[in-house]
Amino acid sequence: MSLPLTFTALEWADSRQPKFRQLYEHIRRAILDGQLKAGEQLPPSRTLARELKVSRTTVLQAYEHLAAEGYLSGQAGAGTFVSEQVPDQLIRPGVPAAKAAASPTPPLLSKRGAAISQLPASRAPGSPNLLPFRPGVPALWDFPFQQWFRLMSRQSKSLGFEAFGYGDAAGYRSLRRAIAAYLRQSRGVRCEPEQVIIVNGIQQALGLACQLLLDPGDGAWIEDPGYNGAREAMRLTGVRPIAVPLDAEGLLVKAGQEIAPDAKLAYVTPSHQYPLGVVMSLARRLELLEWAARHNAWILEDDYDSEYRYSGKPLAALQGIDHNNRVVYLGTFSKVLFPALRLGYMVVPPALAEPFRLAKDYTDRGNSILEQATLAAFLEEGQLERHLRRMRLLYQERQEALVYWSEKLLGQALRVNPSDTGLHAVGWLEKDRDDRRVAELLRQHEVIASPVSGYTQEFRQAPGLVLGYAPYGEEAIRGALEKVAEVLEVRGE
To answer: Options 1.10.10.10, 2.40.240.20, 3.30.160.40, 1.20.200.10; which CATH number does 5-102 get?
Structure first.
């Protein structure tokens, strides 16, 4: 019999792949592409081996693999044939490739999956994490990693074997106890260890809260401008994020009631509003709590940057003055210690502790025990408090450098007002500036400054830039501001 054209086109690749495997792949692809039709007879093994100048064993091995997978079938005394039913056919035999390509293609993703794929990336893969002025990054070089690793080594030796099995999904008991004690003392949070749920960070906490407290279609207030991650967490669970404006005292509760009186939840950052830095007043806190109690609504309190207050003691948490169990308190160690730790926590009302524990269990079975045990020891030995004292002084100095050099180099072109709290400040641009365009130009100069307009949905603010200063020394701050001056075309004195 004559050799099919598909075999005359076979070229042996110069690779470590065995020849029988290359022949197998060649025949398989020819079947799937329709070059070899269903029922078509293949050359006898001896004939094909002679024509391809390989051993008969090579051909037999390829045929055997294809037959085992259902691509070929053999008939005693008749030869080897392409199977009538190919198992993982890509294009039906006999259908031209152009016609097959034109046929409708079913979507690869669900509606939720499609929504996730359209989300903007928080940063491009492989992009630098520490270019000025990226917000939300602590001073990693100043973290006591040697002490941390010593604690981790000690914990790895002292933990019993049972600790390395499946633990409590709500978190390592010693860590939950240490967090409860720390929050009672430092933040005025009223809680017991049973109310503490360990999570992978704020995003997981937001997702769990939206799934357990709200139904798809329910509305939730969110500060505008506000944290985009919270807005997207709501959308991905079917919750409607409803923009509510701010003033100098925080979220405008009256405005929220006018815009969406049927809202079931309010997400707030009362200790240091993100991104504007506003601290919610006591009067506004009481007003929000009264709204939640009256409407049986929930409050998600994201205690963002609360540990870093430079004037007086940190303000007591909203949760600590809630007497109706309507507040779910969220916190993370990403800014306090280092982002890669991926440990955060929720403090939920007692009646919600078991539902949240179960939700965490079915989400990921819990967090790594070794990191939790190390963090528990870090808290119990007072290492966290010592670290925070050092960092408050360092960050205050860096904020002062940011304010000083922005005034010196940029004047009214970029007005940075000092803040009593947090790891970032807002630099306000002149009113005719487009902050998105400025941010784009700065990125070309290796300066990352998020535009304030990028955090808004309905209620536009004056143009401004969010400037993180925590990991940058004075020299780096000045150098970055010189690039800002260049982009804004500010002439030196």
So the answer is: 1.10.10.10
Q: Return mean pLDDT, the chain.
A: 88
CB contact at 8 A, 282 and 309: no
**In terms of pLDDT, which residue wins out, 128 or 78?**
78
Q: Quick: pLDDT tens for 211-258.
A: 999 999 999 999 999 999 999 999 999 999 999 999 999 999 999 999
Torsion sign over Cα 429, 432, 433, 434: positive
Cis peptide before 225 (omega within 30 of 0): yes
What pairing do the DSSP bridges indicate for beta strands 327-332 and 344-347? antiparallel
Region(s) of the chain under CATH 3.40.640.10: 142-385
Produce one character per residue of 240-260: b if its CB has 16 or more CB atoms within 10 Å, e if not: bbbbbbbeebbbbbebbeebb
446 phi, psi to nearest 5 deg: 60, 40
Residues of the chain with CATH 3.90.1150.10: 386-487
Instruction: Take residue 144 and report the two structure tokens written for it.
Output: 């006591």
222 phi and psi angles, rounded to 5 deg? -145, 140
Q: Which residues contact 131 (CB under 8 A, 6 or more apart)?
A: 446, 447, 448
Q: What is the mean pLDDT of residues 426-443?
A: 95
In the chain the first and final C-alpha atoms are separated, in Å, by 91
pLDDT tens digits for 256-308? 999 999 999 999 999 999 999 999 999 999 999 999 999 999 999 999 888 88
Class of domain 142-385 as given by CATH = alpha beta
Q: What pLDDT is attached to residue 123?
A: 57
Q: For the domain bounded by 386-487, which CATH number is listed?
A: 3.90.1150.10
Q: Which of 180, 181, 184, 193 is nearest to 350 (CA)?
A: 193
Work out the burial of residue 370: count CB atoms within 10 Å of its CB; fewer than 13 is exposed, 13-18 middle, 19 or more buried: middle
